[in-house]
Amino acid sequence: MAEDQTALRVVLLGPPGAGKGTQARLLAEDFHLLHLSTGDILREEVAKETALGKEAKGYMDKGELVPDSLIVAMIEERIGEGKQGFLLDGFPRTVGQAEALERALQRRSLSLNACLLFEIDDEEVVMRLSGRRVCSKNPSHIYHLQFDPPKRPEVCDQDGAPLRQREDDREETIRRRLEVYHQQTEPLISFYEERGILRRYNASRSVEELHNLIRADLAALRLEGELAAGA
């Protein structure tokens, strides 16, 4: 299969709390891209009781990590569903996973054409995540103590239920996640820089400003592909 030069095949890279998921959803809509989140894929495969899902569940039930090869197989199955391209959110997390992804794409005569790096200071990540509170009755009601506080302290504006802090949003948990990111995931910066596809963004910007910057860059990248395909 010849590589489609007009498609966008993009990896989002950055620490937890940098805003990757938010931007992925916006960009997927902008460019009609398939948004591939490894967490969502795993849950879907397990729920559907596919062969891959059953194998993954065996590891999960034992409290073990799902092997990279299995995650890549799940992603590889879906890559073809994105006719305009795809966004990978949450994978790869290590150089080993990046190499496995590269091999999977090569089997389809494909390659990534951008890695978007979301750069942000650790202390800002801690402030962003540790300030979040969710409604104990409806977790989709989300607040932030500094940026979007409830009208009454620790009470949901919409249904009056108490607000709570998720375990993942506790400071000690956030700092541990950041340690893991620096140790295991940060080496991917050099990995993708060496391949000439790394693009850096200041993730401290507002959601709208960051979105506008990335959207313009991806539009230019797609246009380059269209021109190359028509040459």
SSE layout and pairings?
Elements: E1 8-13, H1 20-31, E2 34-37, H2 38-48, H3 51-61, H4 68-79, E3 85-89, H5 95-107, E4 114-119, H6 122-130, E5 132-135, E6 142-144, E7 163-164, H7 171-185, H8 187-194, E8 198-202, H9 207-230
Parallel strand pairs: 1-3, 1-4, 2-3, 4-8
Antiparallel strand pairs: 5-6, 5-7
Helix pairs in contact: 1-9, 2-3, 4-5, 6-7
Strand composition percent: 15-25%
CATH architecture grouping: 3-Layer(aba) Sandwich
Count of alpha and pi helical runs: 9
Query: Which strand order do you get reading across the main beta sheet?
Result: 2-3-1-4-8
Radius of gyration: 19 Å
Which structural class is indicated by helix and strand composition?
Answer: alpha/beta
What shape does the CA trace take?
globular
Helix and strand pattern: EHEHHHEHEHEEEHHEH
Reported for the largest beta sheet, the result is: 5 strands, parallel
Uncertain ranges: none
Number of strands: 8
CATH class: Alpha Beta
**Can you give the mean pLDDT?**
91
Intertermini distance? 19 Å
Counting structural domains, the number is 1
